[in-house]
Structures are given as structure tokens and as C-alpha cells.
Amino acid sequence: MKNNHFTTRRALLGLAGVVALVFPVIRSRSGYAASTRPDNIDQPSGRSDRSFIERAFEMRRQAIDIGDQGYGAVVVRDGVIVGQSPSHVIVHHDPTAHAEMEAIRDAAARLGSRDLSGCTLYSSSPACPMCEAAAYWGNIDRMVFGEAISDGGRPSLC
Fold this sequence. Notes:
single chain, 158 residues, alpha+beta, five-stranded mixed sheet, globular
């Protein structure tokens, strides 16, 4: 009996070691372990819907430059970009790495909270149902998209 307990404990400790080694690699691969402070993001000179949409389109250009799908997104709270990302679907081989999802993940990590109340999600195109659901669960207040700066309103589920 004692031997089985030792074997189980040893296996669990080994698994914990693997998780401890792999988790930082996964986080750094996605880019949202790099910084935990919104002030490390270069802020646009203006604090308007236009300037934030322009940044989303900068993220879109970055996505294209790295060989990914042409989408970009930023998350803004109180006139400050707190999260941003280009699409990483192709380069990370991750079907959930849409620009909006990555920007939401970035904002949550930088703010140290899954609650993104008071935030607006700006994206280069309308959010897909998965991204809108993530914005909903993150308590994002408003979505804005496209060059025409269309107001997508508050995210909804389904």
C-alpha cells in the first residue's frame, strides 16, 4: 500500500513539473506574458474611436506581415489601450487565436483580471460569434469595428 501511495505521489509531482515547464512557454508564445502593464503599450496621440480603429488596422497590417489572416483588435479602457493583438490563427496553429480573442487575453493578463468592465473592443471587422461570446464573458461594454467605425453595441451571447 505504501508503495502505491509513493508511486502516485511521484507521478503527480512529475506532472506538476511538466505543467510548470510548459505553461510559461504556452503563455509567452501567445505574447500575453510579456507585460502586465497597459502603460507598456504605445498609445495613440488622439483618444478617439478613429485613433483606436486605426490601431486595430495597424494590428491587421502586422497580422498580414507575419503571414496570418488580416485581422487586428485592441481593447480600450478610459481612453487607454490595455490590450492589443493581430490574428495568430495561422502562425500559432490555433483556431481560437482570432485578433479579438488575443486582444481580450492580452488585456485580461495586463490588467490582472478577467473582468473587462468599462472596456471597448475595437476590431478591423465585425466580431465572429466566438469572439463576441468572449467579449460578453469578459464583460466588455461595447464593440466597434471597421473603417466606418460601426458601433456593434454591447456584446451578446448567441
